[in-house]
Each structure stands twice: as structure tokens, then as C-alpha cells.
Amino acid sequence: MLLKVCGATSRDDIALLADAGVDLIGLWHGVPGGPADLSPRRFAALARRCRTVAVPADRAAPEPVLVTFLRDPAAIGGAARAAGVQWLQLHGYQPPGVVAAIKRRWPETTVVKVLHVAGDVCVERPLLASYQRAGTDLFLFDAIGEGGQVGSTGLSLDPDVVIDLAEATRLPFLVAGGLSAANRSRYEKVAAHPRFAGADVDTAARDLTGAFCAQSVGSIRQHWSAAPDMEEVG
Ligand SMILES: O=C(O)c1ccccc1N[C@@H]1O[C@H](COP(=O)(O)O)[C@@H](O)[C@H]1O
């Protein structure tokens, strides 16, 4: 299973996350006003750092992921390509046409489309087939905040809602939304699903000051790694 942690902003963040065994590191670009938003230059520098950071010989370097609210396929694909980044996380409400345009021009890209869930309602439910036809590689299920907040809500999804959504799709999926070491046992059914690809965390990876905490990330890794292994995705 893959562990993704979101919102790295420094070389030290990446060293800490790599050392803790994180597989995918989310780098924000095109998240206006976001505390972890990166300029194109900084985004490219940190993506390079992900690929070159020291990791034990038996582990791959973490994969940088462009996490974005951008909607313009050329801007999204252009930023990723300029930084040599293969993974895109389309957070927010980009329509299926954006996925299709990216996959047409950059077919080698792994596109993760976020599906936003409020309670037991997935906003994009009527569009699932369209996103699949467009070439989405993985879905990421995330909780919407009470005021419609998107990303890093710290709110957990009901595992039964996750399973229901997984069954309505045919792609591998990641889960986000208030995940932690402590609530891993609640997601037993989810982690055992044959298309469960991994967990995506922001809030629980940090301490009270908002900095990444090696101990918390290590503990999340340890608890969530108990999930059955996923076949290669992307
Ligand atoms: O972390 C953010 O603020 C953020 C901003 C813009 C897009 C995505 C963002 N994070 C995503 O939020 C979830 C996890 O959040 P949490 O563990 O509930 O705090 C995850 O998908 C991140 O990629």
C-alpha cells in the first residue's frame, strides 16, 4: 500500500518524510492562498529533492505529486513536465475534460482525481464513468469540510461510504480525510478492498505547530502498512 503525505515546503520536510518511509510526497502548486503553495521554481526544486533524497538501499525514493486546484490542462501539465513530475492530484472540481486533455497530451502521467464526499454524498458521483473514460488512473476519496472546505479538512469518511464509492468505480483508490495511526482499525474493510491503493494524510502527519512530525508519520506508516499489498498502479 502507498502512503502519501501532503504539503511539503522544504528540503528538510522531504528528508523527514523520506526517512519515515513515505511513498508519495504532495507538493502544492496552484493552490491560491494555501500555506504550502509553491512557485514553479520552488516546486521544481522540491520535486528534484524527492528524487535525490537519501533512502535506504531497499527503498525507492519518494515520488513527488503535483497537488493542484488549477483547471487549465496546459498549465497543469506544463508545470508537471517542467519539474519532471509524473503524478498529478487534481483536487477541487476540475471536470472530466481536464483529465482527458492531460492524458491525451501526456499519456505517461499518472492522474489522481479527487472525489469529494460530504457525509454520504459524493459530489462527483454522476461523473464517475466520465472520469474513468477520460483516463483517470486512480481516484482519491476525500472529505469536504462543513463550510465546503476542500483539502486538509481533518474530517474522516465513513468506511461504509468509502466501500460503496469504491464499488461504484473500477479504478484503484486512495483514501484521505482525517486518517491517522489511531483510526486505522476503523478502516479494516477499506484496507482489505482489492483496489485499495493507499492512504493520503495531512493533518495527522503534523505536530501542534503545523510542522511534520517524524514520530507521527512513522506511526501512520506502521499502522497502515498492515494493509494488504496493492498490485502496481499507474
Ligand atoms: O492540505 C491541504 O490543505 C490541501 C490543500 C489543497 C489541496 C489538497 C490538500 N490536502 C489534501 O487533504 C487531504 C488530507 O487531509 P487531512 O489528512 O484530512 O488533513 C489529502 O487528500 C491531501 O492531499
From TrEMBL:
Keywords: Amino-acid biosynthesis, Aromatic amino acid biosynthesis, Isomerase, Tryptophan biosynthesis
Pfam families associated with the record: PRAI (PF00697)
Molecular function terms, GO-annotated: phosphoribosylanthranilate isomerase activity
Ranges where the N-(5'phosphoribosyl) anthranilate isomerase (PRAI) domain occurs: 70-201
Glycosyltransferase recorded as keyword: no
A GO biological process held by the record: L-tryptophan biosynthetic process
InterPro entries: Aldolase_TIM (IPR013785), PRAI_dom (IPR001240), RibuloseP-bd_barrel (IPR011060), TrpF_fam (IPR044643)
Pathway linked to the protein: Amino-acid biosynthesis; L-tryptophan biosynthesis; L-tryptophan from chorismate: step 3/5
Signal peptide limits: none
Gene3D superfamilies in UniProt: Aldolase class I (3.20.20.70)
EC number(s) reported in the record: 5.3.1.24
Catalytic activity: N-(5-phospho-beta-D-ribosyl)anthranilate = 1-(2-carboxyphenylamino)-1-deoxy-D-ribulose 5-phosphate
PANTHER family the UniProt entry points to: N-(5'-PHOSPHORIBOSYL)ANTHRANILATE ISOMERASE
UniProt similarity note: Belongs to the TrpF family.
Protein name: N-(5'-phosphoribosyl)anthranilate isomerase
Gene: trpF
